[in-house]
User: Which sequence fits this backbone?
């Protein structure tokens, strides 16, 4: 294959659509790789209020350390000090230490903080913010012989060698990619991809001040089970971040869900008496909110992430529920894998320009590297959401009676640590503050399949777990603590 070199001295350039967590992470990585790019954000501001809190596990914390922003983030976060699994009435089912254990194994406390603050750190920590362009809504993408022209609704044009769709679950780039494939490679894009995403749950989320809530500590994690619902409550000093996921109509593909303030208030009123932690209700949290919102919980993964010179990264390619806290982590890791491939190809000649065949091969390698792990995390997140929301009698029995058992927790924790240890990092940038000799980074020899042990746990919870539950009931009957109601 003949390589196109940079005789014109015009550097390879990436056009990124979307300046959320993924788009800003891409800019960090590309700046460290000395790859020219522009990030196009359709809104006037970078920091959005959508979303409440998120978790950053050690694998992605290592990436943030390479970006040079981990220390500043850690200075604003209080490490988790208490973890609870709760019944639908808010009472305690189990006390755990999973998050704390992971932090100890990696000598790197798990980061639990405000999504807005995450975006702020990513943006403020950029070496050069001039790569970011706001008020820039994409209208169409034109493929040329050597690159792309991205036409914006304001009439301006951005030129580059490729387009990355980091524009979320309702991705405009994904739609433009499908249109390009339909005209130029109709056999390459499965028709099913247009229905790959679906939603069975909606969510109300928010951040509130902690007022007269003695049940809440300064740095808690509360996972609350329910009948058709699952709830997450995280605290940081003075603040509580919460999310209620509730079963709703199946939509495939899901429609954008952007309720008005009145509609949002009606959702809150519908669930106002629902117990969250102890006697604290959703109504209590909503009354003390500093912000709140509601959205669809989309799930799914498209089977083709690229067409022509367009490629998808993050929620535009793979979307999952929130129960495992892996959505942002999986998306950032996908971004890092793509940038590693670009840096390898361009490190000897930053003005090299890929042929269509070359860039298709690179995109194909990126998808092959990430597809399996992203699909596994997506499937497992959905499984956990449905189990915690008592999708069936056996799901309820498993999550309340089997899952808290110490032996199963030990298996799950070890497999989770092994999966996190395999998280990709930038191949060309050093870490700055973390100890990569910590026990958690040591992988089991011979196990090269990213995330596979965690999927083995999923099989335990679905197949073996149900079998154990059934056998236990046949032998000993229902435990006294388990109600059929």
Assistant:
């Amino acid at each position: 294959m003949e390589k196109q070199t940079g005789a014109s001295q015009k550097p390879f350039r990436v056009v990124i659509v979307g300046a959320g967590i993924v788009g800003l992470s891409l800019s960090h990585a590309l700046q460290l790789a000395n790859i020219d790019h522009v990030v196009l954000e359709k809104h006037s501001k970078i920091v959005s209020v959508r979303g409440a809190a998120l978790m950053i596990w050690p694998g992605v914390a290592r990436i943030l350390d390479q970006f040079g922003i981990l220390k500043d983030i850690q200075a604003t976060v209080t490490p988790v000090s208490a973890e609870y699994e709760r019944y639908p009435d808010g009472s305690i089912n189990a006390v755990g230490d999973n998050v704390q254990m992971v932090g100890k194994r990696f000598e790197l406390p798990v980061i639990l903080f405000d999504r807005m603050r995450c975006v702020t750190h990513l943006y403020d920590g950029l070496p050069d913010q001039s790569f970011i362009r706001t008020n820039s809504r994409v209208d169409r993408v034109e493929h040329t012989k050597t690159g792309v022209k991205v036409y914006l609704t304001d009439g301006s044009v951005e030129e580059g060698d490729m387009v990355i769709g980091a524009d979320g679950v309702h991705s405009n780039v994904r739609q433009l990619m499908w249109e390009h494939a339909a005209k130029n490679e109709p056999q390459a894009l499965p028709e099913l991809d247009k229905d790959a995403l679906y939603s069975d749950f909606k969510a109300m989320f928010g951040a509130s001040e902690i007022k007269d809530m003695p049940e809440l500590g300064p740095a808690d994690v509360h996972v609350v089970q329910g009948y058709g619902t699952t709830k997450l409550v995280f605290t940081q000093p003075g603040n509580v971040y919460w999310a209620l996921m509730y079963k709703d109509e199946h939509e495939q593909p899901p429609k954008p869900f952007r309720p008005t303030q009145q509609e949002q208030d009606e959702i809150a009123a519908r669930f106002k008496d629902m117990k969250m932690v102890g006697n604290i209700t959703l109504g209590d949290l909503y009354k003390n909110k500093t912000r709140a919102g509601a959205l669809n919980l989309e799930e799914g993964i498209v089977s083709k992430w690229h067409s022509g010179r367009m490629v998808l990264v993050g929620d535009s390619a793979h979307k999952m529920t929130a129960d495992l806290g892996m959505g942002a982590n999986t998306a950032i890791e996908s971004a890092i894998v793509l940038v590693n491939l670009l840096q390898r190809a361009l490190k000897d000649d930053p003005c090299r320009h890929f042929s269509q065949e070359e860039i298709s091969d690179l995109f194909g390698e990126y998808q092959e590297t990430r597809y399996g792990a992203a699909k596994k995390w997506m499937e497992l997140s959905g499984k956990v959401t449905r189990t915690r929301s008592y999708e069936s009698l056996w799901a309820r029995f498993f999550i309340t009676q089997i899952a808290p058992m110490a032996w199963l927790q030990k298996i799950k924790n070890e497999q989770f640590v092994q999966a996190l240890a395999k998280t990709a990092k930038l191949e060309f940038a050093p870490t700055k503050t973390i100890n990569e000799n910590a026990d958690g980074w040591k992988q089991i020899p011979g196990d090269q399949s990213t995330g596979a042990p965690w999927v083995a746990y999923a099989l335990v919870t679905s197949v073996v777990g149900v079998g154990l539950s059934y056998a236990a009931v046949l032998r000993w009957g229902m435990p006294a603590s388990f109600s059929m109601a």
